Amino acid sequence: MIGNLRIAPGKLIALSFLSIGVVILMQVVLPLLSFQIWLFAQKYNDNLLITPKPQKAPQVLGISIQTKDRFPAFISSIIRETKPNYGEFSLTVPRLKIENVGVLVDSNDLSKKLAHLSGSALPGEKGNVFISGHSALSQFFSMKKAVFSNLSDLKKGDQVSISAGGIEFTYQVLSVKIVDPSDVSVIAPPDTSGRYLSLMTCVPPGLNTKRLVVLAKMI
């Protein structure tokens, strides 16, 4: 009973389920709506690069696109001639409140941690350190595994740091780009002399229709 209002137990249970349903629905709708608003704002301000769907996927030696559980992913068969003396390094992104998150070196497995694409540059090297991670509709559903859920919040000028082999490397964000899942051109560095870092995840949040790639350069 609430005041003089008596609510039948059956109605109370129904209202409880309805409330839970609304909460869950908002967890799904709000992130998607927020992403669309973000996308519109980036286009309006000319801050976002969007590549068209390629007529034919560009070829990168040793890289293939394989679908597992309806998820198309970059798979590398490149074997490094000289292996590093560490199998994991850590990533810190202050704006996203990501601190010392583990990244598996030369890995195609995103199920446990962030994955550094096999054969891509190691931290501090010339080339492109390519790191992939899952996104999710919200951290409520991600169980802390979808580290890149808020990757779109990064802005030009933000810093990203990597600690590898006892050395810290700092990169500064240059651009944010949305590409088709089959576009492997994002793996290659913009030039042959710079030291770059790319962070990639799926967008819209919780879906895998496109890829968001953040490009940064070592400073």
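Next protein, fold it too.
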Amino acid sequence: MIAAIGFDGDDTLWHNETIFSMTQERFHDLMVRYVPEAGVDEHLVARERANLHLFGYGVKGFMLSMIETAIEVTRERIAAGDIQRIIDFGKMMLDHPVELLDGVDEVIDGLRARYPLFLITKGDLFDQESKIARSGLAEKFERIEIVSEKDEATYAQILQRAGVAPGDFMMVGNSMRSDILPVLGIGGRAVHIPYHITWEHEIAPPPAEPNAGLTVLESIRDLPAHISA
């Protein structure tokens, strides 16, 4: 039985990583005015990783990491006007329209009539709340959980509060690290729907051994047929 189905938000229900990728390209083009092209992107990724425990996930932490990277790679030569440009990059990201992935509306509408649906997403609270509201999907979920990290303990706590046994729960998401492995780790089922771009921090190898609880689909449109089967 499936007692509840959980969905990730970013890059599972709506586009997100493409916005980060586009902004990183703009940042790269800005930085090459100061320093050689090689190494800027790697420096930014390393700075993001180092800052995660302070800033968490989301646009604001990314913006601060870009500013810090710019100061470091230019050895404090970056102009104040260019720091303002980086801040503007972040503001554009926060204001970017929420674009649902193909098929999301129909699939969610069909499944909500048969199952309790949970939206489980991580990141900056204000940013995630804004995206959820603008997506038009909020009222379609029985529970909405915005968390700072998606690990086994987090999923276990959510399911305990909801009164759902892990074995009766299915999680749908694009991130092997955040949406799939932790749920399998507590005995749940997971459906991996890869997005065409994955942030390096979210990349993780699939389970070393075949897992009957794991399914990989090409599109969210394939999900209802998989559940019915």
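About the second fold: The mean pLDDT is 95.
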